[in-house]
Every structure is written in structure tokens, then in C-alpha cells.
Design brief:
InterPro entries: Glyco_trans_2-like (IPR001173), Nucleotide-diphossugar_trans (IPR029044). It is found in: Cell membrane. This is Glycosyltransferase 2-like domain-containing protein. This protein is an alpha/beta fold. The protein has a single domain (3-194), classed as Spore Coat Polysaccharide Biosynthesis Protein SpsA, Chain A, CATH 3.90.550.10. It has helices at 13-20, 40-45, 60-71, 90-95, 117-134, 151-157, 168-176, 195-200, 202-218; strands spanning 3-10, 29-35, 52-55, 76-79, 84-85, 103-107, 110-112, 147-150, 181-184, 190-192. The strands form 2 sheets. It has a 7-stranded mixed sheet with strand order 3-2-1-4-8-6-9. The longest helix has 18 residues, at 117-134. It starts with a strand and ends in a 10-residue tail after the last helix.
Length: 228
Amino acid sequence: MDAAVIVPAYNEAESLARCLAPFESQPVELVVVVGGDDGTEQVARETPFVDTVVRSDEGGAGAARNRGAAAATAPILLFTDADTVVPDDWVRLHLRHYADDDVVGVGGPARPLEDSLKHRVLFKLLSDYWYRVSWPLGFVQQPGFNCSFRAGAFEAAGGFDEDIPFMEDTELSLRMKDYGRIVYDADSCVSTSARREADEGYLSLFAKYVRGYANHYILRREFDAEYF
């Protein structure tokens, strides 16, 4: 297989089957990293086209993604989340960029699963247009629910930093720039839950990202557990 898809799923029994369904028709090595106690592991193990189920209860999403990557054997690693639904050609859209040997990573935008004008507008601004503006300036931020890497470069970079609780996907994206080119593919749009934005608020989340960039690019601080 050319690609492995890694899905971290912590207490996602209700959403996991919907997330996995598009991969039944896409030729991938499917790895699900499960945690929690709500039956998520049972859903993963009962899905016939899941190749590998890995248990990871500690360390958060970054640690779960690293466990999944370690279990995968394919040369290209794609990552999405259990509360996300990818299009039927998502794997193909990512893989086409790796025909260029200089490409080490691909990222793409998202739209909300929830049918709300507020969510649709803000997702378009913050999960698409913001990327289109910031990536050419060097502010690369492959979202954890829609990203991929060459396995060799991912391993050389050390994978996701398991010590930071937030923005670990962006932190890895910034490190991956040292290994090659990272492509933004506006066509590979996924649908993901807006529950985090609804719970914390768009302004609060955006302020965290602004502080993160200011710390890294202006104050030149290294990412660590106290970064935010």
C-alpha cells in the first residue's frame, strides 16, 4: 500500500464509524489509535477494513498519532480525527503531491459538520483563507485532522511533540519545513466537528494561535509545555 491513514479516537464511539466509512473504498492501511472507556475500541475492532488497532490512553492527540505512525508500514502517513469525515478521494488528493520528491507534507482546509451559517463563515475564514495567506509567509500549519507526511521525514523530525497540549500539529509543521516542501491543497477539504470552537469560542482559539506565533516568531521562544 502507498499510504496509511492514522485516526486517533479517544471516547469517540458515537462518531468513529462515520469517520471510518469513507476508507472502505480507499486503498489504504487503516490504523485506529483508541483510548477511553465508551466502547471506541470495540467499534474499531468490529470495522472489517481497519487493519490495526492500537491502544493509547495517555499523552493526548500527539502521542496517539505517534503510536499510530509507529504501527504503520506505508511510506506516506495521512492523519485525520475521529470527529472528521473525509471525501471519497481524500487519499488520492494527498498522494498526488508526493510524485514530487521535494514534497514532505500536505495539508488542507476544513468545513464544519454542523450546519450553521456562523460556523461555515468562520471555518472558511480561519480554516481556509487564513491558511492561504499565512502559508506563503512561512506560517505553515497543517491541521491534525487533514495532514500527511512522508514517513521517513516524519520519523527524522521526531513526530509530534508529546509535551505540548495544544497546536502540536502546527509545531510539527514548522519543523517539517526543514526537511522539504509542504503543500497546501485547497481541494482536499474535510468536514470536521465545530464542537471545540463552540465550547471555547472562536476568538479565544484564534488568540491562542496569535500568541503562539508571536512567541515563536517575535520572541523566538521554543515550543514547550508552558508555551501557551
